[in-house]
């Protein structure tokens, strides 16, 4: 670049410094950024707010961490930060309507991983907290895993089941039972949502979940979770399933707008 005899813009420099720090750390709290950059927190808040308004930074719901936006780079649709960014404001709106917390999960080799939750904003987030980011839920017992298994492509489902059959862990025995699996798939598909297995009780809650689908693939799942002593799954579905489906549809629309149709992909015809 040609050397110009001008001063640099200090405010722009600070903003770029913050963006660079976020890219290096992937996610950071306000205190983290203050420690790394030395910029006063009041100034950081203004920088982050400006960057958020310009689509350069977003804030994760689960822990309030700031994350550099991936939208300008059109990130691939299997990037969890990209999906978390697309879903963040939708999860916040869903929480305002339902008031019970929801969790956003993505499939891994043989489990579902929590990547965000609106739990901190939930009115009814009572004594038992929702599982944190990074929590692994069971594919065949958890609501999110069941939603994924029922609606993912057959080749993916068989690969997951094969991995589950290789390990003797609670719940994995169902992967050896073709009749049980057929009933699970049929019931979940006919409902259009999944329900946590009754025996999968580690937190006093129950959950229903709906898959996020794009071009025949399941990107992840969104659930609604509540204290099981308050309502049945049928009552929660009656009250809140439409809101949950509408939220998932908005995420799918955002993902579809960001990722072009890929020929040759496709899951089961359901």
UniProtKB/TrEMBL annotation:
Keywords, ordered alphabetically: DNA-binding, Transcription, Transcription regulation
InterPro entries: GAF-like_dom_sf (IPR029016), HTH_MetabolicPath_Reg (IPR050707), Tscrpt_reg_IclR_C (IPR014757), Tscrpt_reg_IclR_N (IPR005471), WH-like_DNA-bd_sf (IPR036388), WH_DNA-bd_sf (IPR036390)
Domain IclR-ED: 69-257
Domain HTH iclR-type: 9-70
Pfam families (alphabetical): HTH_IclR, IclR_C
The keyword Transcription appears for this protein: yes
Keyword Transcription regulation attributed: yes
Alphabetized PANTHER family for the sequence: DNA-BINDING TRANSCRIPTIONAL ACTIVATOR MHPR, HELIX-TURN-HELIX TRANSCRIPTIONAL REGULATOR, ICLR FAMILY
This protein's name: IclR family transcriptional regulator C-terminal domain-containing protein
Native species: Streptomyces ossamyceticus
